[in-house]
């Protein structure tokens, strides 16, 4: 028996959307197998991981709290990836957004007006964009590979944040703990409802969702970005300015990641701490691909990813499983997705030896 | 600066540069065959954690090294299956491999964080190690570093002098022509990817068994990515890989040097140095787009299937 791939000659539309679902199912199956091997009941573990966290409204609101930064980062990444600009730096852009937002909030501790929040969010967003701007500058000016520069900037951003939280931004009255003072109420994102931690970042994310949807699906700029991604030379021939598009895609990408970061510190955390993000910026890479770089697909994928984060915490508390399950599933899912994507362009054919022989016999007679 | 300090710096430079050298040699072969595997960081981490667990559980360091290499190869097999077998985008597949490797290693190693292990000790070769300045650097290292010297010689010989090297480069420069000559393009590429996996696993094992004998989450700290930049820096030439690896090693230990001469700079800022250096080097070397394109293997990163 032999599995062979036959080119379809065109993209299969149904497979384009079935492939992420297939990848999710395969991830769950291999996850179950892994749990069984580790001596846990697979069904019970999956229940702990995926269903138990959503038992009540608090669970659902926690899901949204975790989905917001992932969604924002992934929306930004989708813009860059549509142009085939591999921005891997969402994590660093997020951290810088958190850092700059915190620095602003700590300046405005005594301010009572709501403008404080505006300044804080703006500072974070601009800082995220600026951090991505470094990658854009290096890429357009010096032709430096954006994958490597954006990854390096992630490590630099993390160290920068650690430096500030251990040094200049440390709370003087904080018993030498590496954390800043709590922000003033005026610079915090308001809660959406009384119970739970869901905060005004929700509106920012919805706004970003609509904006990115319009940009990618309805605007000429989005069209240019997609053409650039599909065929660099063609984009050049019709006169689209590559450098300008690269700048634009990366700035949007960084601004949204920065917004995600400032949303975390001004939202659920309320101060600058060393651990702003449990890898949201990296998770967003998987989410962007899983959502097919489509804003609505990304919403679904970021909810799924947030559920994995929530479930990972739950599994650690109740079953003593390492929380790294979340990252493990992330990686598996992306891998399965890429493997399943082969079905978009190719049709799998099972070939039995006898079938070949029969075909050969028919052909010769 | 006195001679003793300088000799110490050179010694530490080689120690720090070795994991970079090992990964970069593997990736060099891989890229020469036309495959861009961005999963180095993931393979390194998995190698590091498996090597550590095996060595701690069995008490046999060499078994740890061997299985670290096997672990790296196992992950690279996944990459080969998806990127070469299924023709997937190599950039995305490599990223997936890194994300997967980070998750897998953290998951597997959760129970082993912070456990002590007595790793490989330096072995000073009599007489030779007493040569001033370079004696310690070259002849008082641990056995994995001596192994890295040998592996460097092997890779250099393969690429510059052997038939296998010609085959790898033919496949990387023009898979169509190589295929027309009857070379099994996909098999050559798969083997190159597996070699890269073994080297990344070995580099991970070096970190967790010799450099700092312990396991910590994400202990590679971006070395897999730096090694990728290193190959670009070296413009795909093997001697420059060696030079680059040690230069980056030097950049990573500058904080020791700074302490040695009495500068006080916060450690978090000094920790940025290797990453900043990577960016600077990338900028300096990629400035000339045409030159980069001339040095890079022509089919680098492009999927290829027979008969298309």
UniProtKB/TrEMBL annotation, chain A:
It is a multi-pass membrane protein. It is found in: Cell inner membrane. It comes from the Bacteria. The chain crosses the membrane at residues 16-37, 57-80, 92-109, 115-138, 150-169, 198-216, 245-262, 282-312, 324-346. The keyword Ligase does not apply. Pfam families: BPD_transp_2. Keywords: Cell membrane, Membrane, Sugar transport, Transmembrane, Transmembrane helix, Transport. Its main location: membrane. This is Simple sugar transport system permease protein. It comes from Pseudomonas cuatrocienegasensis.
From TrEMBL, chain B:
The keyword Transmembrane helix applies. Its main location: membrane. It is found in: Cell inner membrane. It is a multi-pass membrane protein. Pfam families: BPD_transp_2 (PF02653). The chain crosses the membrane at residues 12-30, 42-59, 65-86, 93-113, 133-160, 191-209, 221-239, 246-263, 269-285. It comes from the Bacteria. The keyword Repeat does not apply. Keywords: Cell membrane, Membrane, Transmembrane, Transmembrane helix. This is Nucleoside ABC transporter membrane protein. It comes from Pseudomonas cuatrocienegasensis.
